[in-house]
């Protein structure tokens, strides 16, 4: 599918404190590339502000194999931005993104490339959550997809992660998006193209710990939902209407009591309760509006979404950012 002299396959790997995984991951990737008889490739590590020896490990690989490249961020920008930087700089006819911790089994790359060669333009993967994933992570992921799919226009399939192959055409399409709050999982299904799914069993993280704390995961979920959907704003209107309606009904009831019965309104308790309740609801709604406003604010500044400190790829991509 690629013309001669071009790079056939790029691998994009967000890397944040993964010193124990870099070498092993590279070995496994190389094995698959040999199987596939791909000789023109690039392995791009995006060092997302690691504070361990990750970059030194990557440089050591690069000393043996000049197809290994890295983009070093000036600080930690987060997984999604690392992915975007990788896509912005990758040159391959197809680009595969995968995690550095070997939870995305490199062996699957062979199947992805096969499907791509048969004409698929997006090969996304679905995690089969049976083992190797903590109960909490499993439940929180379930809750996220449940909510996200109720709120977003295009459903995100459960268990899909940022382990996918994208054809050059799709990568070029994604590069035209200038969103400062990027959520690729929500964006890519909306793009169209020929999308094919691939199921896999996740492996356990090979070395180190998950970089996603509970707080980060919560933030990720809210960001994901509000990046791909404006429905929460409608939700806030409906909720507001619902409580206005309840208040109206209660008001009618209060008038009825006052006019047609002798029971004086002594409802101090119910009054306070409803005031607090409505107050709480209002705060949630203002919060929802605020999230969108904040995103507009950040977007309006048009700042670059990441800053690269050092780069082994000739900087052909994304000057205009
Ligand atoms: N990662 C990153 N920046 C971050 C957090 C994570 O580049 O701020 C990378 C990390 O090195 C790994 C991938 O993103 O390659 C997924 O992270 P992790 O394994 O911690 O997430 P989990 O698998 O637990 O969801
Ligand atoms: Mg992981």
If you had to describe this structure to a student in words, what would you say it looks like?
The chain is α/β, with parallel strands linked by helices and 321 residues long. It folds into two domains: 9-211 and 304-316, Spore Coat Polysaccharide Biosynthesis Protein SpsA, Chain A; 231-301. 48% of the residues lie in helices and 15% in strands. The chain has an eight-stranded mixed sheet with strand order 7-5-6-4-1-2-3-8, with helices on both faces. Helix 1 (22-36) links the parallel strand 1 and strand 2 (41-47). Mean pLDDT is 83; it is low at 316-321. The site of magnesium ion has 5 residues, from loops. Uridine-5'-diphosphate is lined by residues 14-16, 18, 48, 76, 78-79, 82, 99-101, 103, 210-212.
List of distinct ligands in this structure: uridine-5'-diphosphate, magnesium ion
Beta-strand proportion: 5-15%
Oligomer: single chain
CATH homologous superfamily label of the largest domain: Spore Coat Polysaccharide Biosynthesis Protein SpsA, Chain A
CATH architecture of the largest domain: Alpha-Beta Complex
How many β-strand stretches?
8
Count of alpha/pi helices = 10
Low-pLDDT runs: 316-321
CATH topology of the largest domain: Spore Coat Polysaccharide Biosynthesis Protein SpsA, Chain A
**Strand-and-helix sequence, N→C?**
EHEHEHEHEHEHHEHHHE
Could you give the distance between the termini?
A: 29 Å
